[in-house]
Amino acid sequence: MSSMSKLEGFVHEQMQQWKVPGVAIGIFDGDDVEFAGFGITNIETGQPVAPETLFQVGSISKIFTTTLAMTLVDEGLLDLDTPIVTYVPELALSDAGARERITARHLLTHTSGFYGDRFDDQGNGDDALEKAVRAFGDLPQQTAPGELYTYCNAGIDLVGRAIENILGQTFESAMRERVFTKLGLERSTYFASEAIRHSVAVGHMIGGEDGQTVSDPWPIPRRSNAAGGVSSNVPELIRFAVMHLRNGALGDQRVISERSAQAMRTFQAKGDYTHDRGLGWFLHPIGDLAVAEHGGATNGFMARLITIPEKNYAIVVLTNGEKGSSLHSAVTEKAIADRFGASNTLQRITLPEDQLGGFTGTYRNSLGDATITLAGGKLSMARVSHNPFSGESQDQGTFALSPLSETAFVIDDGQFEGSIGELIYDDDGKIRFLRLGGRLCYPDA
Q1: Potential cystine with 401: which of 2, 103, 200, 379 (Cβ 3.0-4.6 Å)?
Q2: What would the pLDDT profile of 178-197 be if each residue is shown by its tens digit?
Q3: Within 13 Å, how many C-alpha atoms sit on residue 172's CB side?
Q4: What is the pTM of this model?
Q5: Rounded Cα distance, 336 and 396, in Å
Q6: Residue 238 near residue 26, CB atoms below 8 Å
């Protein structure tokens, strides 16, 4: 029985459990390739998902952007350790000292230290990214460059702007010439006007009379294309993944050097409790397997791309539902366990109530508020999210937590199951941040 056949029933169960209308999956295993589509692209039209259906892939786009940046590194046009202001002199940042020190390596490892969830719409013109970078001056510098991992979308947009300045062309055209065309990615695009020519999914949120509603808006702002703007399908994402598995080349087309491909999946910086940072990639083990992966989330879309280089294996799961991350986590976990017998189990611990009480409080950033409480010796977290694309706030519910250490916990249920929270203290022993979902949240005074 094929890998996809083993997954089919499980995928349907997960779609029902998490109210995900459509799913596309691609698996590359050695020289065997399988694709499948499940469900529908849009609850308003009922069109079926095909393997060729385009989905927004969100932050998987960052691996494309890093790959494009490495083509410039290979040509000696971009130095990862030269201050980025060398390439982007128009950059505005609130901290003048950090502005002179931040490098492309910091940006590609999410260790630049400035706040990064900025999605202001700068229009659809070719100057959208330039306008965005000129408006970075009010982004708080949360940590010193290189000090601490905190996920930073704006930092990847800044790399995109450096590419524009170095090459003298738009970011999207550079990607088309240097990556998409070389790999034969004919449908992958950054633009709704191009996606609409093909089978294309729309995102969905929980709500409405039937329990689901189509997400609005569909496109993210053009200025965020470097961080999260790719729309693609599973055959084309698998081609991209195979290029990385083969160290930068696909057939007779070399996109990046072997050295650059390997550097992307080599340790560059400490991440959070469960992973480290390569250049672009999240790095972590599954059992004894070394994994390089990235997820993605936009307005009603959730996606995941996992590569296991030592096994010449890749899996892509694309979904068009708000809770699709729960589905793609379960499906990829099952696929890898079935194929390799590999899985991870976080080691939960027991702490006395006085130590558990150290987690309690309310923590905030622009994406949401998290309130952690302790009752009956158990921790729980109430979560309110703030959608950066629609501007809407939503009560996400309350979730059980289990401690992993005196400073870290895992969410045990619901759509955020498996997510990690970590307390970060200052030199005086006070809570400086809660890092949740890779972002720094500030404690209420």
Answers
A1: 379
A2: 999 999 999 999 999 999 99
A3: 19
A4: 0.95
A5: 29
A6: yes
